Amino acid sequence: MKLSIAQIAAACGGHVIGNADYIVNRLLIDSRSLFEADNTMFCALRTEAADGHRYIYNMYAQGVRAFLVDNMVCDAATFPEAAFVVVESVEQAIYSIAMQARAALEHVCFIGITGSVGKTVIKEQLFQALRGQVRIQRSPRSWNSRLGVALSITELQPDIDYAIIEVGIDRAGYMQRLAQLVRPAIGVFMPITEEHAAGFSSIEQKAQEKALLFAGCRQVVSVGSPQLHAAYVQAPVIQVETNEEAVAAVAQLLGVTPAADVFAPSNRIDVREGVNDCVILFDQFTPDYRSLLSALDFMRRRSTSTRSNTVILSEVFGADSAAVLNMLYRFGINRVITIGSEAYANAPSTIALQHAASVSQFLATFDANRFSSETILIFGRGLQPVKDMLAVPRHDSIMEVNLDALVHNFNYYRSLLRPTTGLVAMVKASAYGVGAIEVAKTLQAQGAAMLAVAVIEEGIELRRGGISMPIVVLNPVTGNYKALFDNRLEPSVFSMRELSTLLDAAHSCGVDCFNAHIKLDTGMHRVGFVESELPQLITTLQSARGIRVASIFSHLATADCPDMNDYTELQLTTFQRMSQAIVDALPYPVKRHILNTAGIMRYPEYQYDMVRLGIGLYGVSPLDSMPGDLRPVATLRSTIISIKHWPAGTTIGYGRRGRLSRPSVIATIPIGYADGINRHLGRGAASFVVRGAECPTVGNICMDQCMIDITDVPTAAIGDPVEIYGPQMPVQRLAATLDTIPYELLTAVSPRIHRIYFRE
Ligand SMILES: *Cc1c(COP(=O)(O)O)cnc(C)c1O
């Protein structure tokens, strides 16, 4: 698209502040995806997860000069070169802008795709078949949501003849407007299935709603579901069975011969652990310039300061090598290996360029040990052997960490608090066992106020992983104060003795000013200043130089025990009194916090300036009576590696402690007490989930393996996943079996279990 700020404002009924002549070529909704600042308009969407208005300053600093906002949260004078379009709803406005962009494309023939399954695959196959024959663009990846469709349209260039747009809807009532936006001349109707049926009253209603996309089509190619499709499509229908036939039918309508080399792309970028601490990102999507941009964007979100960035690529369809190199350069890629297609000349000097004539030449000349601590994007066709060389084999037992669930939980607690209350995310003990760096990165992006770790080493690990936000160290007593200051870690201070050591250490390290957090003991009776120490503490704080009290805090002993509310309330009033004395004595503002997860849920009126969110972040409610709207973050999973049938009376495992009372089918899974599976979960005390069914443990848990009874799951097979805990088996249940708390189970999973992070 190419629209001026004035045209955009007219299209969406907004008003302009700033330069109305500025030209916008693209819309950006996720600040992390910024690639070219010039002519980009940042759209400050508000979603459940985030408020785009918070990123305006950051986007301006990166050169963005056009903003679509629903509220002038900022002073336009702070952004002298920017143009703002102020609208009622940013999401609505994006749709209106897309309508305007669509109006400028009357010469383009639109091909609209919808249906329940296979939309992205057929879209890519059509694109592959047609891209050599006609000037054509298609929606990127699977941008098929309402917003995705609108954004896809704004990405179209005027010099094309065809556009393929994929449209997905998950409930009735949405298609009409999208149909008016896309206005396809040719339709491709993919099969209608029962999947995602919640937003529809019946499969017929779903077919009818989806068919609205084709209202103005001159021809519709229907794949599968012949009766359903025919019942609701008005336009002439060409019925086919397979994607190949659909591609041929569309090509024929366009009067061109489709390319022969068409393949089904995989939309998921496979993230794998690589050799020598590498991370492998394997992308098997249609390899063109636009897909490379998305893959690099995905890669950028995963890169860390400890790994360099490498791209291994084969042919990029229809791309100009200078443009590809420029893009790689702008994404900060350090090393590029091209395979097959000629090596790119004139690479910027920051990129180390290497070349292999073919995949087999690559395998012959590049030793896996020449890769180390790199994030490696493998992009293009035919590179499976390259991935196999660089990835380590999959682990049979893993912990899967759902970062979207983490964000969901974070936002859930945020919704219980005042908007100005800071959230301190507890990432001690490797973020309750799920892995501190990925969690910290995610929460840093979500706007957590601070992170809390237990010991200095945990803080250093986060800094090495590229975490820049404030980090408080709860138990800093190690003597290694130099590392503490060097890494900008903020100590918590809980005794006079520690305070004076800290002040001395700051002095000898030449630190003029550092933040510290004062811990008060209001009733936990673990560590912290008690009331009688306050006068001495205050005098010291008033006279000491260098120390700045960033916050005062205390910890509740009984926030999760409703039968001890008296005690909790006593702690809360003690905290108010003690912290007030310090606040009053210091000449600068000092923040205060006392609530943990259970405290947030039960005593939100005591949120002060910040709260410390721990277990709730990980999707576990500390209160049985208040489950909260939480989603489990960690899934501990193993795999069936052996299945055996035994007659009744057989004994299983060490000490013959599993005695079969019936003919049984016993599966072995490679996870044991050395991985954190407590031995008390053996001998049937716990069950793990196979194909949705709970299968009890049999016999004693071994060090590296254990056995489960799968007699009642006749379809179970070797290779089946086994959920130890996760969405199907709440960790609380296992904790109850062991008479302990979920915290202990989460943090007990040994480091040898690999943590795999994903977003849905
Ligand atoms: C661990 C911890 C928390 C978090 O407690 P949750 O019950 O996990 O929310 C809060 N404050 C301090 C001082 C802690 O050590």
Mean pLDDT: 93
Rounded to the nearest angstrom, the radius of gyration is 30 Å
CATH class of the largest domain: Alpha Beta
| Count of distinct structural domains | 5
Give the percentage of residues in beta strands. Answer: 15-25%
Ligand names: pyridoxal-5'-phosphate
Low-confidence stretches are: none
Would you summarize the structure shown here?
By secondary structure, the chain is of the alpha/beta class. 30% of the residues lie in helices and 22% in strands. Strands 27-26-25-24-23-22-21-28 form an eight-stranded parallel beta sheet.
Describe the structure.
By secondary structure, this protein is of the alpha/beta class. It folds into five domains: 3-90, Udp-n-acetylmuramoylalanyl-d-glutamate--2,6- Diaminopimelate Ligase, Chain: A, domain 1; 105-254, Mur-like, catalytic domain (UDP-N-acetylmuramoyl-L-alanine:D-glutamate ligase, 3-Layer(aba) Sandwich), CATH 3.40.1190.10; 269-390, Alpha-Beta Complex (Protein-Tyrosine Phosphatase, Chain A); 400-618, Alpha-Beta Barrel (TIM Barrel), CATH 3.20.20; 634-759, Lyase, Ornithine Decarboxylase, Chain A, domain 1 (Beta Barrel). 30% of the residues lie in helices and 22% in strands. The chain has 24 helices and 38 strands. Strands 27-26-25-24-23-22-21-28 form an eight-stranded parallel beta sheet. Strands 9-10-8-11-12-13 form a six-stranded parallel beta sheet, sandwiched between helices. β12, α8 and β13 form a beta-alpha-beta unit. α23 crosses α24 (742-748). The two termini are 30 Å apart. The model has no long low-confidence stretch (mean pLDDT 93). Pyridoxal-5'-phosphate (PLP) binds next to α22 and β28.
